[in-house]
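Why do we bother with a discrete structure alphabet at all? Because it lets us treat a fold like text: something you can write down, compare, and reason about line by line. To make this less abstract, here is a complete entry for GIY-YIG nuclease family protein. Read it the way you would read a sentence in a foreign language you are learning: slowly, and without expecting to understand everything at once.
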Amino acid sequence: MKKPGYLYIAANPSLKYDLLKIGISEYNPEKRLEELSRSTSIPDKFRLVMAYQVEDILKAESRIHLLLHEHRYCAGKEYFQVKEHIAIAVAKRVVSLLDHTPLPEMHIHNDFGFHQFNKKLGVSFHRLFLLTMAYSHTNSIFDKMQGFSPDIVDGFLGVDAVTQLLFVQAQRVRNSMKEFTYFAKDLTVSLNKSEPTKVYNDIRYRRGELCWLFNAPLKEQFISW
């Protein structure tokens, strides 16, 4: 069940190492930061850097923490050692993709039909690979015309979406997504007898959410209209 609220980024001059607090609140984030300023031992008040009102705060939090996982200062805490402009860019991308739906139709380049992966995908991994294509937001004809530019993330795929699409139990999907993440890190594909091309520049999984960034040469092989 979706829980509406706010995704926010906050700073405090007393915090070292450019630490930012990135969290969620069911009510006005300014009021939430006032509460934090009173209840913590940090002497200075928190400053609101940005806030987005979203329909699903738990999904928003899970996804931004997934993308910023390597910047987390302490496990279990909502503090991240990251520059404000980077955190804001990631938050904007997460919010823009919260309601992203799979493509109703996708056109694949003819050369993609003559491909060879460096590892056998199997049925479940092949389905997940196709779903990462279908759930990517940067595969439109407009991207093809303008040229693919570096991005933060191409898409997200949640366990709930996969269970609904494939009618598979959630725990089985979680296990497959975890295994696929490790499997896909060094996955390559040869297109039309060309040199092997890395499939994903980045792919990661955490708490029911998968996210990825395709390698640009591969992205050019499939577009939606």
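What the structure line is telling us, in plain words: The two ends are 32 Å apart (CA to CA). Confidence is low (pLDDT under 50) at residues 144-149.
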